[in-house]
Write a structure and sequence with these properties.
heterodimer, A: mainly beta, B: mainly beta, 11 strands
Chain lengths: ~120, ~110
């Protein structure tokens, strides 16, 4: 059974750095072709892809947010970490992590999401 | 960047109706398109991938078609569990993934 779960702060202050952790089970990020992505959704709005990391440590970032994002993995802990710098109130959103399977480009398993609010 | 445009943004339908949602890409994406269903407060759920492949466990009343720039998601006989928001997602534009703006399916 594949599961993913996001964790991190629910509230951050403007200009602070957000660190979110995705802890997963049921698959390995050492398996060829597998990736884990971060996707966010502001309240009442559409989904926005942020970043993705592959089994071989290849990383992809949204061009519009690239300068603020870092994605890393810890395969021994089955975790993927996303950091986003210089948080702003417009970054208030539910942040999801999701798996991309071997040879695929869609996201077949998702975490439940975590709502992050940016406020002083 | 490739833009994905869904239409309509919302629709009202009755139980048993057949509904079709369209997703248009600003340039050709071959068949690199997926459809997701999202209910309030829940994560998206994968329905269709590679434009027309049904994800395991998804009811057969869901179907997808299209290639190039125009794609459709059809629900053949709307059930109570189908009232939700639907998103398309493309991958043909390295190195990014893009979602449509969503289509909300409501009860008439």
């Amino acid at each position: 059974q594949i599961t993913l779960k996001e964790s991190g702060p629910t509230l951050v202050k403007p200009t602070q750095t957000l660190t979110l952790t995705c802890t997963f089970s049921g698959f390995s990020l050492t398996t060829t072709g597998v990736g884990v992505a971060w996707i966010r959704q502001p309240p009442g709005k559409a989904l926005e892809w942020l970043a993705l990391i592959y089994w071989d440590d290849t990383k992809r970032y949204s061009p519009s947010l690239k300068t603020r994002l870092t994605i890393t993995k810890d395969t021994s802990k089955s975790q993927v970490v996303l950091t986003m710098t210089n948080m702003d109130p417009v970054d208030r959103a539910t942040y999801y992590c999701a798996r991309q399977g071997y040879g695929d480009y869609h996201f077949d398993y998702w975490g439940q999401g975590t709502l992050v609010t940016v406020s002083s | 960047d490739i833009q994905m445009t869904q239409s309509p943004s919302a629709l009202s339908a009755s139980l048993g109706d057949s509904v079709t949602i369209t997703c248009r890409a600003s340039q050709s994406i071959s068949t690199w398109l997926a459809w997701y269903q999202q209910k309030p407060g829940k994560a998206p759920k994968l329905l269709i991938y590679k434009a027309s492949s049904l994800q395991s466990g998804v009811p057969s009343r869901f179907s997808g078609s299209g290639s190039g720039t125009e794609f459709t998601l059809t629900i053949s006989s709307l059930q109570p569990d189908d009232f939700a928001t639907y998103y398309c997602q493309q991958y043909n534009s390295y190195p990014t993934w893009t979602f449509g703006q969503g289509t909300k399916v409501e009860i008439k």
